[in-house]
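Retry 2 of 3 after timeout on previous attempt. Resubmitting structure tokens to design endpoint.
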């Protein structure tokens, strides 16, 4: 493929040569409502270096963008900051077309590329803190193990004061604009938070350590170039500051009410619980699972101090949609949350007990025993639901201050 796609200059020596995926709506279980980008970058110094590649269907688009700045298609080196397939999936094919003299990755990255490509990609390992001369420009590698995979690293280009931050500080957002300062702030904030909640929340303690480490390195950063979403060239500390706040997971006054229902009873209970929360001064983020994707629930939970889960009992189990959302949320390891379980049942009523046990496993602080209602809640049962909401709100008030 040639023509039609061109590179976008990001800094003196760096061009964006990635791809925009307008149509994807799934990233391993995460609803990417606004599509995404797979960002690859070309460093043009004395040598030409490609940083990361793109998802396989977009190889042609990347190659066309590379050709727009390097007509002879000669690339000396490829740096693979992260071997997840959205960044390395086209690496073997790209290497065949670009003939780089070397492909570099972290030590874990080399192993991961071997396991992905079984010899079709020969990469050499670079060490944490190692620097490389790219033909008059200097790059330093910063290992970021487990952010987002064990192989992950970032690359800092000293001459342009630019950090290739791989999955860090990114978001799933397809756009014609390449820079964050060209996009609406509320969209950046929502999609940045959604990305953090769904991809990085379980790694919060590591992210706090990484931010501290990068702060101590005292690198002047004028551009942050992530592997997804827009490039930050203004207000560059905005995302690192948000990451520090999100990773701290400090409790807030708001609460998430997530539920599903069979015949409307657990729905009624959820609505009464939400009334109680609001009456107690806690904004309730109500997520009926027929209308809310699990990844949107996770996003709401990032900014909430409590999780209240409602499920009917079906065949002695938690309702399947609730089990799915809870399995997903448990994996994201939210910290510092209060919790409660509620739901309606017909004859055995195990769901709320199962949920309470799961919430305990998730190390959430139980505010009260599970609240169960047989069949359809009457006025007195709904008053109990409202009371549950008020109790959680009072506890959140205690935790967060008035
Ligand atoms: Fe964008 Fe962890 O891959």
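Retry 2 succeeded. Sequence:
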């Amino acid at each position: 493929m040639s023509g039609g796609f061109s590179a976008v200059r990001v800094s003196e020596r760096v061009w964006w040569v990635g791809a925009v995926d307008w149509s994807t709506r799934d990233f391993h279980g995460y609803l990417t409502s606004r599509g995404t980008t797979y960002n690859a970058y070309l460093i043009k110094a004395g040598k030409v270096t490609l940083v990361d590649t793109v998802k396989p269907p977009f190889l042609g688009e990347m190659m066309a963008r590379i050709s727009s700045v390097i007509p002879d298609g000669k690339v000396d080196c490829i740096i693979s900051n992260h071997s997840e397939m959205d960044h390395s999936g086209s690496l073997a094919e790209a290497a065949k077309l670009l003939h780089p003299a070397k492909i570099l990755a972290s030590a874990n990255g080399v192993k991961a590329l071997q396991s992905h490509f079984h010899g079709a990609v020969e990469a050499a390992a670079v060490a944490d803190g190692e620097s490389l001369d790219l033909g008059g420009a200097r790059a330093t590698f910063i290992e970021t193990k487990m952010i987002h995979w064990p192989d992950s690293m970032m690359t800092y280009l000293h001459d342009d004061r630019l950090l290739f931050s791989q999955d860090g500080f990114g978001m799933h957002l397809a756009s014609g604009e390449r820079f964050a300062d060209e996009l609406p702030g509320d969209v950046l904030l929502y999609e940045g938070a959604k990305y953090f909640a769904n991809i990085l929340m379980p790694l919060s303690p590591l992210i706090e350590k990484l931010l501290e480490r990068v702060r101590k390195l005292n690198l002047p950063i004028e551009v942050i170039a992530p592997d997804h979403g827009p490039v930050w060239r203004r207000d560059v500390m905005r995302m690192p500051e948000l990451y520090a706040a999100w990773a701290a997971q400090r409790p807030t006054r708001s609460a998430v009410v997530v539920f599903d229902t069979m015949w409307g009873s657990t729905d009624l209970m959820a609505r009464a619980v939400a009334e109680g929360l609001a009456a107690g001064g806690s904004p309730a983020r109500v997520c009926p699972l027929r209308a809310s994707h699990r990844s949107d629930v996770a996003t709401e939970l990032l900014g909430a101090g409590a999780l209240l889960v409602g499920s009917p009992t079906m065949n002695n189990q938690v309702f399947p949609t609730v089990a799915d959302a809870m399995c997903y949320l448990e994996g994201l390891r939210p910290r510092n949350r209060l919790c409660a379980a509620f739901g309606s049942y017909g004859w055995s009523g195990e769901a709320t007990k199962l949920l309470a046990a799961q919430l305990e496993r998730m190390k959430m602080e139980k505010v009260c025993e599970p609240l169960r209602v047989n069949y359809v809640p009457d006025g007195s049962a709904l008053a109990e639901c409202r009371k549950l909401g008020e109790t959680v709100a009072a506890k959140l008030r205690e935790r967060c201050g008035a």
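Attempt log closed. The radius of gyration is 24 Å.
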